[in-house]
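Methods — Computational structure assignment.
A single polypeptide chain was analysed. Its primary sequence is given first, followed by the predicted tertiary structure written as structure tokens.
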Amino acid sequence: MSLTLFSSPGCHLCEQAEDIVDYVGASFAVVDISSDVDLVRQYGIRIPVLKRADGAELGWPFDALDVERFTA
């Protein structure tokens, strides 16, 4: 399953989210929203956000169990 984690440099919540997704063992790409105005508008106050290829999103806060359910 293809996952994207929308993040921003210096975001401690994003670092926690990355650790959680990594712990679950899911494959994911991290996208830095700070260099894209449209992504900042869409995710700026909501990051970290985990997104599946089908467009479904899991917003923060989430834990390992949430990620496992989201990726099942």
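Note: The chain has one domain: 3-71.
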